[in-house]
Amino acid sequence: MAETRSTELLTGRVSVLLPLPLSGAYDYLLPDGESAAPGALVRVPLGTRAVFGVLWGPGSGAVEASRLKPVGAVLELPPLGDPLRRFVDWVASYTLAPPGAVLRMVLSVPAALEPPRPQTVYLAGTERPKRMTPHRERVFAALAEGPPRPAAELAREAGVGTGVVHALAKDGFLRSIQVDPSAPWPSPDPDRPGPLLSPEQAAATETLNRQVAARAFAVTALDGVTGSGKTEVYFEAVAEALRGGRQALVLLPEIALGAQWLARFEDRFGARPAEWHSDLTGARRRDTWRAVAQGRVSVVVGARSALFLPYPDLGVIVVDEEHDGSYKQEDGVIYNARDMAVVRARLSDIPVALVSATPSLETEHNVATGRYSHVQLPKRHGGAKLPTVSVVDMRATPPARGRWISPPLAEAMGAALERAEQGLLFLNRRGYAPLTLCRACGHRLQCDHCTAWLVEHRLSGELRCHHCGFTAPLPSHCRACGEADSLVACGPGVERLAEEVAALFPGRRAVVMASDTVTGPRDAEALVTAMLEHRIDILIGTQMAAKGHHFPDLTVVGVIDADLGLAGGDLRAGERTYQLLSQVAGRAGRAARPGHVFLQTYMPEHPVMKAIAAGDQAGFVAAELAARKDAGLPPFGRLAAVIVSGPDEAGARAVAAALGRAAPRRAGIEVLGPAPAPLALLRGRYRYRLLLKTDRETAIQGVARRWLATVSWPRAVRVQVDIDPYGFV
User: Fold this and answer.
1) Fewer CB within 10 Å of terminal CB in the chain, N or C?
2) Mean pLDDT of 676-702
3) 318, 240 in Cβ contact below 8 A?
4) CA–CA separation, 205 and 238 (whole Å)
5) CB-based burial label for 345 (10 Å; 0-12, 13-18, 19+)
6) 316 with 241: CB under 8 angstroms?
């Protein structure tokens, strides 16, 4: 563990780290007679404005004292703890990002640093309007499900405009009250009785609880088949941290997974945790940040950015679905939250649990080499059986022309519906069709700002780029040849699949679950409730539907295009496809009724399909690790991607070529490229990629830092470094 910094009060010359992408901390002066603790939040002058920053330590002395500006104010908030400050420095060094850019992720809510003002919240009055519109009904329904809330938050949860809330308040149907935003948060009860654990769950719980009670760093891979009750096990680790008066953090890869998770948490602890994700209102983010910093929040569940909140006394970290690619941040500071969670736990001297039914190969390797401990849950909870898996060879049993559901899958789905069971059709493509082309000249509709096809979204009547968000109406003429009514949709998306389901199973209730239709936690919760109440017969979903959900009546799962993730030559393609298909398959048969999974593939002989069909996860992992070792790829080697981009193609190409010429060339180091990125144009910027490959013992950050220092480039060109890349587009 890194050496702990001094906690003595600072006086006189101090260094202040600002949440800006600057080269380092700046020196300031504390006024005579004043002192402050390291980590104190301060307001300082920068040019003509005042900015927030953090006292990082004693001043450097590089600037004469007479030229230093005074610290404007020390804020009345707890200082950032030493483990968090070391974490900021560590992440910056590892990712080659400026420390201030990492600090910006910690101080992500500047409004939270200002003194809190009384907050106006609304609760239902004693009377109801005589004219009850659907919008008004949703407001009262939202109030019935939770505490009084500010107008913006209440309107957001109800799916209405704030004008509806204010109008109800003006007419006396809602009451407004002033509350102190520093009031206590609901406190989860660790001693509230939980569900009866199986012997395997109890043994795993004992291991995790012992680590939490020891208050020492440890990494445990909690590996259990889908439906084995991993969540209940790590809930007990959270409870152990709460009994010790400490905080707990649970990371989830997607907030849509949280709908059932939050209900399960509330059942276990009697209160909901604080949430942290991009869908929160600004006011809620402000209040949550302050409450976490002041220790008033004991449990946080959130997306990857929750890792950077200022917990004063963190006792355990849980990374659920630790293998998930959503933990990788690709913009700004590029990092993997799973790996950084392990680092934060080490610097805080606390345990971390990495939870998955299909652990990443990095985690599998760390378990095999003894770096991580390992607890397993090999059976489904409550006697439920794993589903049977059938591989459907689409060459032998293809669907009818223009259809995508094979006869064996359609027959099994129909039989399940007759038994009053539910089905899931999985296709990891949003929209109606992934490609639209002209049948007259063959022109393909492409994004104006990216080298990507425009995806037709028939429900919204538009073409959309899934990379930059560009949208355009579906044209009536081909813009290449001018032919009218010549544009045709090619391939299926979930919307097109829904059309086929309506034709195959008339009268059955089918719903699409994708980021276009489930835009926040409230939508996710409504959909989950509809499934549990059997108001949906067939769920048609993208990756959002693949994991984390427990639907007792769901017995048949069909994967429409099981080969989809295997294209492109990505080194993790096989691993990711295996994980995703295993997670999808795990939705079937999670209760008393047996489940059956159908994988539609044109490559039934592929190792991924054979491993899933045989239930041979250990064999698949062993083969993948052996192939990686032979190639010197992670986890046996190191990779760093260098992405060069610019608004001018020639300028970006020139910088990439210069980097290629300056590439380090010695034993144990290899540089591939430069080459145009698969997405050669993204958001209007031309892109080139280089890949630095080293052995495991080489400090790849130092190699990359020295290499980039030998080349200069114009301001219009951006050079980004991705240590441990997960995507290669």
Assistant:
1) N
2) 95
3) no
4) 10
5) buried
6) yes
